Amino acid sequence: MSRALLEFLASVVPEANIRQQEPMSEHTTFRVGGPAEVFVTVDDREQLEKVIRYLNLTGWPYFLLGNGSNLLVGDKGYRGVVIRLGRAFENVKMEGNRLTCGAAVSLAKAARTAMENGFSGLEFASGIPGSVGGGVRMNAGAYGGELGNLVETVLVMAKDGSLMELDNDTMEFGYRKSVLKDRPYAVLEVTMKLQEGNREEILARMNDFAARRRQKQPLEYASAGSTFKRPEGYYAGKLIMDAGLRGMRIGGARVSDKHCGFIINDGTATAADIAELIEEVSETVKEKFGVRLEPEVIFLGDF
Predict the structure, then answer these.
(1) Which of 176, 254, 256, 282 is flagged as catalytic?
(2) Alpha-carbon distance 63 to 186, whole Å?
(3) Average pLDDT, the chain
(4) Segment holding 209, helix H or strand E
(5) Is 226 an annotated catalytic residue?
(6) Has 176 been annotated as catalytic?
(7) Are 66 and 103 in contact (CB under 8 A)?
(8) Phi/psi of residue 231, nearest 5 degrees
(9) With contact defined as beta carbons under 8 Å apart, do 273 and 251 qualify?
């Protein structure tokens, strides 16, 4: 580990915010993953700007972590810097029908805030275990709703530390993607436009979605939610089931019996088990039906 890097980080953030060899299994919903070489929490925009500028100038690889809900980190870990957004990125503000959230706000908290203020549109997101920043980057959605239908503006930071405000058109939202998937921008803040509604009715929809999730999804196991994107004209879970892969296992990784679109960690899986099973499922479905399943999961580090 570079002493210069550690000394620089210590000059920018409190020493308590810097960890070496931090196990990423503690920061992903799959509950697997080896250590990040350096794990740093930045408390505000000024700290983030200094850290990002330094890492880009010196060539250090880095990854901006959300809630780790769509991430598979290799068993050998990540040779670089994982950045987690801290306190200043957890603010939520409602002004009229506009909800502004810091990137580190959970989607569940954003949905709850909208409901408590009597505004509708985010009910679908109440059970998605991700952050607003990560959700916007991948245009998270469920039950017919997508963040891209609500977002007005996204405040981002470029590699040189400069700030830009991207409007909905510039974000180029599509199915599980946005312009940010291919741009090295850090999401700082998101403003969404919602519709006024009845608080009790909004809460009832949220409760209904939660009940459906409990009934149909393997929430009792560690996973990254739906493992694969929905291929056009098909459903990933049905293709996997029809391919005879329900319950298929590699090590501690298994295709869920409850919902074949989920690959779960039974508590003993390694990242390599999960990655191998994802590939095996994708290959089998391709052989049987000619459809290539594309993972929603981001792969990070060495497996």
Answers:
(1) 176
(2) 10
(3) 97
(4) helix 199-216
(5) yes
(6) yes
(7) yes
(8) -70, 145
(9) yes
